[in-house]
Amino acid sequence: MYKCAIVDDNEIDRLTVASFIKQFPELLLLKSFSNAKEAELYLAKEPIDILFLDIDMPSISGIELRKKLKNVPVCIFITSHPEFAVESFEVDALDYIIKPLKQERFSKTVNRITMYLDIKTKSSLFETTIGGDTIFLKEGRNHIKVKLHDVVYLEALKDYTLVVTAQKKYCVLSGIGKLLKEEHFKSFIRIHKGFAVQKQYVEEFDINRVVLHNKMIVPIGKSYRKKVSFLLTDALIQND
User: 17, 6 in Cβ contact below 8 A?
Assistant: First the structure.
């Protein structure tokens, strides 16, 4: 069970997050705070696994509080201000939810959290090597061979990367930026801080998203739009 805390100066939002947390048996809400100072004092003594944190708060912002609480493994920002998204990931946020809160979106975040914490717990069991068109994943005593041309996209998960095929998701103990510097991943296009897609699987795109093989949809980051537009257009031409 993962211990959680909420920091938000809006009472309704605190109660909403608390009600969502209670729907997941793997999460345990220890305490809610209406201000960052009170939270900082408590969390300096009480270890938790997950911090649900508002950004725009009086006195100390959520960004500043996160910088002071780097020992908390997972930070999820929940805010009305989408313009803070880039800055939030620079302080190691695992996810960023825009208010008003919705159950479906929160559920996706919880899935992402549990996947990350499970991987972090088992990290010593994973090993990755790259050779030719193949990624070899070692999990315990088992070796898993994944063909790079079967990989549809890559998804960043803090210090790890999810390697996603049409059938399954695999974990690589390497950041997405580091992987994309490898010669073997030259066929991938970085379209978002958290995503890179393989050119051959691009079927269509607009300014907000890319539609891939089997109708998988991957978002395009605002700061990447101009840069990737030409690359994605070229990918579509090559795929034809």
Answer: yes
Alpha-carbon separation of residue 218 from 14, 39, 152, 233 (angstroms): 30, 35, 10, 16
Two tokens at 178? 């580091």
User: How do the domains of the chain map onto residue ranges?
Assistant: 2-121, 125-239
Amino acid of residue 5: A
The answer, yes or no, to whether residue 124 has pLDDT greater than 80, is: no
pTM confidence score = 0.62
Tell me the per-residue pLDDT of 11-54, one tens digit each, with 9 for 90 and over. Answer: 999 999 999 999 999 999 999 999 999 999 999 889 999 999 99
CATH: 2.60.40.3710, 3.90.1170.50, 2.40.50.1020, 3.90.76.10. Which one for 125-239? 2.40.50.1020
Query: How many contiguous H segments (helices) and E segments (strands) does the chain have?
Result: 7, 16
User: What amino acid is encoded at 96 in this protein?
Assistant: Y
- Asked whether residue 136 carries a pLDDT value surpassing 80, the answer given is no
